[in-house]
User: Which sequence fits this backbone?
């Protein structure tokens, strides 16, 4: 996801990010490093083309710089699509590990999945987010693994 524009709001002490899809997200100064503060105010903030417009850079009056990637902004805002992508990414990494450990050849795995080599390599590519969790779970099943998900209350996790 790319950033269209970024602004700052000193009253709310936050950066305001707009993506090319039109989403408006906030990111608090307190999460930034270095943190803008009254003793070291924000001098400049801009979408960083050198970072592929996937981050913004800010400069403080002292000359200190910081950069915030869109991933951090999405994570802070608990973007549902982003959280799903993280789950898919972790599950794919686990599948990659299990494929390498498997006594089955990749050709045999493809045969059991009923898929082509191209589709198989897309399935084990952690940067491919066009696949479904169901496809990765099917791969793990072919490899002889059971996948279980658990749902936990975040409030109780924070207290422990």
Assistant:
């Amino acid at each position: 996801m790319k950033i269209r524009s970024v602004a700052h709001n000193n009253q709310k002490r936050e950066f305001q990010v707009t993506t090319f899809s039109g989403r408006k997200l906030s990111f608090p100064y307190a999460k930034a490093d270095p943190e803008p503060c009254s003793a070291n105010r924000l001098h400049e903030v801009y979408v960083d083309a050198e970072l592929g417009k996937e981050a913004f850079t800010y400069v403080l009056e002292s000359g200190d710089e910081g950069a915030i990637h869109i991933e951090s902004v999405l994570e802070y805002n608990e973007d549902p699509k982003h959280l799903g992508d993280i789950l898919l990414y972790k599950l794919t990494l686990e599948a990659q590990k299990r494929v390498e450990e498997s006594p089955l050849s990749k050709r045999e795995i493809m045969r059991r999945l009923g898929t082509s080599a191209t589709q198989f390599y897309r399935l084990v590519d952690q940067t491919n987010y066009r696949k479904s969790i169901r496809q990765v779970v099917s791969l793990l099943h072919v490899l002889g693994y059971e996948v279980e998900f658990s749902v936990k209350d975040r409030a109780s996790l924070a207290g422990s």
Summary: The chain has two domains: 3-76, 80-142. Helices lie at 70-76, 80-101, 106-113, 117-123, 133-142, 154-159. Residues 80-101 form the longest helix (22 residues).
